[in-house]
Amino acid sequence: MALPTQITIPDETVHERFLLRAAAGRRSRQLGDIFEQWILRGCDWYWDKEIAYIEKTPEPMRPIKVYGDRRKGQFIAIYTKQAQPDFKGTLYDGSTIIFDAKSTSQDILQQSAVTDEQRKEFDRYEKMGARCYIMATLDFTDFYRIPWGDWKAAPEKLGRKHFKRGDLEPYRIQCRNGVILFLEGIEL
To answer: What's the pTM value of the predicted model, to 2 decimals?
Structure first.
């Protein structure tokens, strides 16, 4: 058997880039979870004030295997449907509200953050008269409520499929003590 004439050594930079992307993905998911928790605090605040009842939409999944202690309800599952918008509810005037939460550590918000399934859902709800929004944060320093119609129109209005921080200024909303005041400025 002949020995190879050239030995290939794995490219360390490829591995490092993979690890960095994995770490960034973990951080992004953690920030997204925190953002949703702050929105849930807002949902509770609006419920306490009898302004709105808004819930987090559960992700449909199917358990495929028990994991750990069965009594604790731990299992491995797969999603059975693509992600829907994160939150749905009713405002005190009887109107429906639906929105999705998007968090990024960058200075731009990509339209591709909304899936095709979510687009279809937003369009259906909008057609029925619901108030549809994208709630977003950039670096947890700025918070925004972007109407669905404006989100969809971005390529025509801005000439690109993303929002820069400056583009989002008209949609700014307040966050106080970890509570996102996402209904601020909406006429009911």
So the answer is: 0.79
